[in-house]
Amino acid sequence: MRILLIEDNTELANAISEYFGHIGHPLDWCESAESAEKLLAYQSFDMLILDINLPGKSGFQLLKQLRAQSEEIPVLILTARAEVDDRVSALDIGADDYMVKPFDFRELAARCRALLRRERGNASNQIVCGNLTYDASTASVTLHEIQIDLRHREIQLLELLLNNLDHVLTKEQIADRLYRFDEAYTPNAIEQVLTRLRKKLAGSSLHIKTIRGLGYLAHVDD
Amino acid sequence: MLVVFLVLSAGVWQYANRTADLSYDRLLTGSALAIIERIRSRNGQVEVDLPYAALDILSLAPDDKVYYAVSGPDKSYLTGYKDFPPPEHYTPSASPVFYNTNYLNEPIRAVVVSKRLDDPGVSGWVEVRIGQSRNARNALSNEILLGEMAVLVLVITLALTSLAFGINRTLSPLNQLSRSLRERRADEMGPLPDTDIKEVKPLIASIDQYRTRLQSNLDMMQVFIADASHQIRTALSSVQAQLDMAEMEHDQDKLQNRLALIRNQHRKLTRLTNQLLTHALVAHRRDTNQFQQVKLDALLSAILTSEVRDHADSNIEFNYSNTHRDLTIDADPVSLRECLRNLIDNAIKYGPENNSITLGIDVEAEQVKIFVDDQGPGIPDEMLQRAVLRFERIETGKNTLGSGLGLGIANTVTEAHGGQLHLINRQPQGLRVELVLPRRRI
Asked: Where does the record place the modification 4-aspartylphosphate (chain A) (predicted)?
């Protein structure tokens, strides 16, 4: 399990390194996007913790470049609040998560663990969200390692939400995926599927929020 | 002025030339007509009886040479200078035709006139050409030119002088004004010295008004810095105190408690710093006019989405209320986003755990109301007014993080948009914070 931290503030980087060493996840550290590129060229990492405001090439540029090379490595962005657009655009250009400085180290470690687990899951057709596992090949769901019985539409909805974590899905977008065009459905139908799904997944790390008037948003809280 | 002078000079030059030509052309015509009158035909022969008096007229210009030529039908030579040139493309006619030519290396002004003889034996056009060198003519033209130019220069000089005088006189109160502005100390208040000149009074009034506004801005800034320093120092010293106590603590459990307190204070300080910086940001953007067309639906749903994401693990219910999905308004999207984010954060911080928060808009003809509703305790009616002021934190008895800057930010942003900030207690409970903004900039 190798994590690369790209952060130009020495004190913060040292503190993060020390903290991660303490909890048994030693990490590699470099100070700029340019040196990160060199490291990534001949070593493989499981995850990047990337500061946006770097000397020379910015974190955004590095991230864009990685995603353009279809590099799937999970990236967690560190950003300062003053950069008001960071939070939105970081997710838009392919960051998997972000944290706003100053942040809680425990929270950072938890988010990293969540990302690493999710990534390991992806490789084996599995999506792991904390205590919840979804296996796309067998369409099975386990919570606390206990198999959960879901109906067809509930599975479809769960998969759709897991593939769009942290993004809003409108009712129309969900209906398009859940129902064929010749199938009649009432606006309440989706709400009912969701209610059943929520009940069956009670106590899981996956939160499905309804934003009335806007749509649905799934978020993993590890 | 130079252009006017050049145009007028060209006009005068033209006029002098024309006048001189006109006078001397008359003399030439007179001579030519006198000569042609004396051409007769007799017994099939053309006879010329040259009247010397005709040429005498031309001797009024003593320095000039006179040339003439008379030719009969078929251009046959009769008398005078045989090679004195005719005009180009000449059709014989009884009315005189003037032309300029060169003869014996001298510029010549000449006239030609013809007469038709219709006697038996002699028929056809006879022609008289008579020319004169230009000395007298040029002398006259120059004389006229000089006279006119003298008048012209005089008039222009007079005009320039009176103009310079007038401008100086008009601008003197402005010079006086700039002198008194230059000599003023930066902290000197009070109105500028008055002036008697009616036209300058509004200017002085505007400058005074501007200075008053500037001063009130500075005053506000001073109060703000004082408030901010107080808040930051308080938070910092309490962190310092907890650190000192933690250092002396030997009991593990108590140490953990101290650390939790420090963490809590630090969170408070973080939020305060963020809000202060946001306030500085929106104030700066207000002063630099960052307005553009904003699609309200896209902005609001993005704000709400990021808030939901940040509080997905809470029991808070989020709602969005907007039936005008295509509405655009003139606004600064960055400060509007910061303002609404702060209002929603406020609602979360001061509200109950199962809060229900609604972000929405009401659209009217000229204005749009953007509101944030919550199910919190609201604000006591008597404190609604004060709540908008910076750092007026409402004591509701609940121990929450917050500096009271949230509403101050909202107030600054609304003012920058030329709108109003309303706080309304909702029934049966909860608070509505409403930004009433004009849809178009005035």
From this structure: 51
Q: Which two tokens stand for residue A216?
A: 């649905």
Q: Which of residues 24-83 of A touch B (CB under 8 A)?
A: 81-82
Put simply, the answer to whether B306 touches A87 (Cβ < 8 Å) is yes
Is A151-220 assigned to CATH 3.90.280.10?
no
Name the closest residue on chain B to residue A84, using Cα atoms.
B334
Instruction: Sort out which chain B residues have CB atoms less than 8 A from A212's CB and list them.
Output: 317-320
List the CATH number of the domain containing B107. 3.30.450
pLDDT in tens, A10-52: 999 999 999 998 888 889 999 999 999 999 988 888 899 999 8
pLDDT per position as a tens digit, B153-208 = 999 999 999 999 998 887 887 888 888 888 888 777 777 777 777 777 888 888 88
Separation between Cα atoms, residue A41 and residue B95, nearest integer Å: 104
The answer to whether the CB of B172 falls within 8 A of the CB of B179 is: no
Which domain, by its residues, includes B60? Answer: 2-143
Q: Which of A20, A57, A15 is nearest to A35 (CA)?
A: A57
ipTM score here? 0.76
Nearest-CA distance A199 → chain B (Å): 15
* Alpha-carbon gap: B275 to the closest alpha carbon of chain A (Å): 10
* Tokens at A30, concatenated: 């470099």
Question: Which pLDDT tens digit goes with each residue over B215-266?
Answer: 877 887 787 777 778 778 888 888 888 888 888 888 899 899 888 888 888 8
pTM value? 0.61
Most A-contacting residue of B263, B290, B305, B319 (CB-CB within 10 A), to test interface: B305
